[in-house]
């Protein structure tokens, strides 16, 4: 017997995954800010790509408020990471 998942449960799951991804991105960016090595910054960029995908997927969900919150948090983390990346570029020049 196959199990059919309720679509609202699936959409809530994608929102939860996006929120978890944003939290992991926050941690990766914070680590890169604390220890701005090339490896830490690269890991944060990799986490960013994963998070963007998770938030895009959650965008299909019906819970717009939760998706918008995840999008806002993603934008904040992108800004934090961009400031770190530009600082790294300044120190290499």
Structural description of this entry:
This protein has three helices and no strands. It has 93 residues and is mostly helical. The protein has one domain (9-81).
- The geometry reads as elongated
Order of helices and strands: HHH
Rg, rounded, reads: 16 Å
Stretches where pLDDT is under 50 for at least 5 consecutive residues are 1-6
The domain count comes to 1
> What is the mean pLDDT?
86
Structural class call reads: mainly alpha
Fill in the keyword field for this structure.
single chain; about 90 residues; mainly alpha; 3 helices; about 85% helix; disordered N terminus
Break the fold down into its secondary structure elements and pairings.
Blueprint: H1 7-34, H2 38-58, H3 64-92
Helix pairs in contact: 1-2, 1-3, 2-3
In short:
Residues 1-42 are annotated as: Disordered. This protein has 93 residues and is an all-alpha fold. It has helices at residues 7-34, 38-58, 64-92.
């Amino acid at each position: 017997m196959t199990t059919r998942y309720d679509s609202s449960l699936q959409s809530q799951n994608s929102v939860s995954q996006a929120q978890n991804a944003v939290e992991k991105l926050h941690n990766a960016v914070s680590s890169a800010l604390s220890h701005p090595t090339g490896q830490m910054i690269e890991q944060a960029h990799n986490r960013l790509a994963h998070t963007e995908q998770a938030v895009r997927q959650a965008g299909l969900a019906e819970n717009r408020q939760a998706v918008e919150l995840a999008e806002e948090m993603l934008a904040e983390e992108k800004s934090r990471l961009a400031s770190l990346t530009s600082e790294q570029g300044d120190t290499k020049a």
